[in-house]
Write a structure and sequence with these properties.
The protein is an alpha+beta fold. It has 3 domains: 4-53, Uridine Diphospho-n-acetylenolpyruvylglucosamine Reductase, domain 2; 58-174, Uridine Diphospho-n-acetylenolpyruvylglucosamine Reductase, domain 3, CATH 3.30.465; 180-291, Enolase-like, domain 1. The protein has 11 helices and 15 strands. β2 (27-30), α2 and β3 form a beta-alpha-beta unit.
């Protein structure tokens, strides 16, 4: 059997939803397809009866400013994100995460919506969007709704919305204001395996020299779903950021995460060892960007 029987390419959201509703058997929505096609070919996903390609829907390719929010369409490719002036100004952590995914060929095709819909606890795009306090727009034949991105993940590879009847249209998050910045980084296996041992994104609002007025921390894989480290955020809010405060925050973060041993990534013990190293790296860059010196700020 081939990868699919019927291939549809709707030109707007309504036609896509009607195609999903009319599918008589299994279906899959595809944009870049860099994950889905491989999963079907390698037996991790069953072949589908109807493949619905949403790459021809203009709305899902938009990057635009809407009042004090940025809309990022689900079908925007990783390379388009990397090259976007708007996102480089307002969502640097997203740009950095997309620049680390795959190689040039993958980034030219893969989409941010595909990364999110794949629903993996360490999806680089997911982690960076979570740090920005992102909402996701989901459409069905009954209408559209906005909800917190954090709420759509049920378990590894599973979402709380119905992927057979509902479609991710795009994402929105606040513009970057004065005193705000973000950063993303990840730690990889030296053998070149294309999965992260740990990844993390941080968004901060601060005042010079070291006052953290607010912070968001997202990371993975640190449990069955992408993690917002809310207890660590609560501790750091309105704190002077110094080495002692950072070490206390590391202990809280270490208690929040659920790090397990993975034969493809690393042991739980090694991940716990690396956690403060990654946290220090990302928070120093983000706080440094607030002051205009992203490589000069140091906790030491």
């Amino acid at each position: 059997m081939g990868l699919w029987k019927n291939y549809l390419q709707p030109g707007n959201i309504e036609d896509a939803l009607q195609s999903m509703a009319s599918a008589k058997s299994s279906l899959a929505v595809i944009s870049g397809g860099t994950d889905l096609i491989l999963d079907i070919e390698q037996g991790r996903h069953a072949a589908v009866d109807t493949m619905i390609d949403v790459t021809c829907i203009p709305e899902m390719h938009e990057i635009r400013l809407v009042n004090d929010l940025i809309f990022l369409g689900a079908s925007v490719t990783l390379v388009e994100i990397i090259q976007s002036r708007i996102l480089n100004e307002h969502a640097q952590c997203v740009v950095e995460s997309c620049g680390l995914m795959g190689g040039p060929q993958v980034r030219n095709v893969a989409t941010i919506g595909g990364n999110v819909a794949h629903a993996l606890p360490a999806g680089d795009g997911i982690i960076s969007l979570l740090a920005l306090g992102t909402e996701v727009q989901i459409a069905s034949l009954e209408g559209r709704r906005w909800q917190s991105l954090e709420e759509i993940f049920a378990a590894p590879g599973q979402t709380t919305f119905d992927r057979n009847r509902e479609l991710v249209i795009g994402f929105r998050f606040p513009v970057r204001k004065a005193g705000e910045a973000s950063a993303f980084s990840r730690l990889m296996r030296p053998q070149g395996v294309a999965i992260a041992i740990l990844n993390m994104a941080v968004w901060v609002r601060g005042k010079q020299p070291r006052l953290l007025q607010d912070i968001r921390i997202a990371m993975g894989p640190a449990g069955p779903r992408p993690l917002r480290a809310r207890e660590t955020e609560k501790f750091l809010k309105d704190k002077q950021l110094d080495e002692n405060t950072f070490q206390q925050a590391c202990r809280i973060l270490d208690d929040e995460v659920q790090l397990r041993t993975s034969p493809h990534r690393a042991t739980a013990e090694y991940r716990h060892h690396l956690l403060p190293i990654l946290f220090k790296q990302v928070i120093e860059i983000a706080v440094g960007r607030v002051s205009g010196n992203p490589r000069e700020f140091s906790l030491e």
